[in-house]
Amino acid sequence: MHFATLFGRTLRQAPAGAGSLAEQLLWRAGMFRVLSNGEVALLPLGSAALHRLADALTTAMRDLSGQEIGFPITSTAPWLTTVAALAERDIDSYRQLPQVIWSWRRRKQQTRGRVSLLDLPTPTTLGWAALALEAEQAESLLKAARTRISTVMRHCGLDPVAEALLSEGTATVIVDSAAAPLDTLDCPDCGLRAPLDTAPLAPLSPHTDPAPPSSLVETPGAHTIAALADYLGIPTSATAKALFFSDRRDGEQRLVFAVVRGDREASLAKLAAAIDAGELVPASEEQIRACGAIPGYASPVGLENVLVVADLTVANGAPLVAGANRTGYHLRDVVYGRDWQATLVADIAQATAGDPCPRCGTARNAGRGVALGAIYPPQPTTLLAQAADGQNRPLLVAGIELDLEPLLHLVVERHADERGIVWPAAIAPIDAHVVTLGRGDAVAVAGQKLAAGLQAAGLRVLIDDRDERAGVKFNDADLIGAPWRLVISEKLLATDQVEVRPRAAPQATVIARADVIRWLRGEQP
Predict the structure, then answer these.
(1) 215-346 belongs to which homologous superfamily?
(2) I need a surface site. Which of 120, 127, 279, 347 has the fewest CB within 10 A?
(3) Topology (CATH) of 430-520
(4) Are the C-beta atoms of 344 and 274 separated by less than 8 Å?
(5) Block mean pLDDT (10 aa), the chain, length 525
(6) Which has the closest alpha carbon to 373: 225, 181, 138, 163?
């Protein structure tokens, strides 16, 4: 690979839109570019680094006796759903189990803000899944995959890779990052982390004290939670908040009535996941009135033919003040289960800093990080397979999803200095950066011969034989960050020597040209 013809020039400065130091270095080193439509293109060096990471993970999957499956290139379907759909046609007996499969695909997702390697609309995703009839077997396979992937991550310079609770036992893989596009809630005691918009709330204890019958109370002008609490002299936590959304999918709409405690907001991410929503947008006043509810005084009491989703905080039996579906009036002492029922009860409230950890009860702190994927514990499917005892049992599936492009950013973020990137050897796009100094034909020929020898030995090589000053070439080599820089000059050629410097080393070493390959392999004489 020749520097002069490499697609993607090195830059003295990153564009004004580049955010973190890692993103600036990736821009300047010619690793990626942002297209006019806002999407990201990996240039040859960036693509090479991604392929090396993918190769390392592919080797890990094969070592686990996994079989590669070619799934759709771009998909919005959940990974485990896709796996279950495949198994439905081919798995019906314990004799075919366990199965371990993996696949590469482009996964469509909604970005959280400005597009970068940390937050792509279609990241390259490794999907791994295990199919089994016994939970212990599925857990064992999942543990082995997690261990193997963690080993690969350590070799790529990412240690540790954290796992954080997402929902119902699922874990999302979160890593701290200076760029940090993801808000999290972190427990300082047990280490539990979760994305803020999906962070689970600790369950409330059931309310067991008897409550009086609900009663109508006049509340003029109290059409907000704050105004209602002030008028009645109660905390907002003693009220029920009514929130209406329109769920749009495939040209159709359905009205969703979400009920959370008055001191909480609804998490759209949790609500959408709970009801398998398409696009949730605030409902119009006309939609709300059409179902019999009154904006500002809406209540789930007495409503029919509406999808009502109750948060766990309003379904523990505590009496709350709720709307009466009548302007200027509310209902006191409304109790879930006695006075109204929801279509679905789920954790849909937004968690905030200070909320107790659902695992240990410690107050959680606000944090920032990057989500790299998810880990799914064994879960039953609707598919049945015959067990060894002749009985049909639900097929279990466990899985892992891991996005690759964010890893490139994180590696650079953790492995860089004031001069540029310092790639770990396992993921470096090139192994050796050969620099020739001098305009003589003999130096150019010697550089080509050295590069050819290194390539023949299985190393990836970039040769810089441009007609540029030594300082320019050295700066570019440090910026790109190959593990080894090799220099040939007229003076060194005269003594049949090469200057060798590891990227992170403060000084270079001069060695015989015949010893270069052994030196790079760690076989120094």
Answers:
(1) YbaK/aminoacyl-tRNA synthetase-associated domain (3.90.960.10)
(2) 279
(3) Rossmann fold (3.40.50)
(4) yes
(5) 86 86 93 84 95 94 92 75 90 94 87 75 91 95 91 82 55 78 87 88 90 94 94 96 89 90 94 89 92 91 88 94 95 95 95 93 91 89 94 95 91 93 96 93 93 95 94 96 96 95 94 92 75
(6) 163
